[in-house]
Design a protein that fits this description.
Blueprint (H helix, E strand, L loop, with lengths): L1 E4 L5 H21 L3 H6 L5 H22 L3 E4 L7
C-alpha cells in the first residue's frame, strides 16, 4: 500500500494561513497606532503584541506541518486482470 502526504490540504496550513492574515493586519495596525489609543490600554500596544504573537503561532504551526506531515495510505487500484 502506497503512502501520500496531504500537502496543502493539511488543516494546519489552512489554520496557519488564517491566523497569519489576522496577525499581519494586527501588526500593521499596531505599528501605525496613535499614542492616545495605546494609553487606553495601560500603555501596552495590544495590537502590535497580539499581531506578533499570532505571527509566531503561524510560524510554529507551519514548522509543525512541515516537520511532521500527515501521511495518508493510498490504495492501489486493481484493473481486474
Amino acid at each position: 500500500m502506497a503512502q501520500k502526504k496531504t500537502g496543502a490540504f493539511d488543516i494546519r496550513i489552512v489554520i496557519a494561513a488564517l491566523v497569519g492574515i489576522y496577525g499581519l493586519v494586527l501588526t500593521i495596525l499596531g505599528l501605525v497606532e496613535k499614542q492616545a489609543e495605546i494609553d487606553k490600554a495601560a500603555g501596552i500596544n495590544i495590537n502590535l503584541w497580539g499581531g506578533i504573537g499570532m505571527l509566531v503561532f503561524t510560524a510554529l504551526f507551519v514548522l509543525w506541518a512541515r516537520l511532521r506531515p500527515i501521511v495518508v495510505p493510498v490504495e492501489e487500484s486493481s484493473t481486474g486482470e
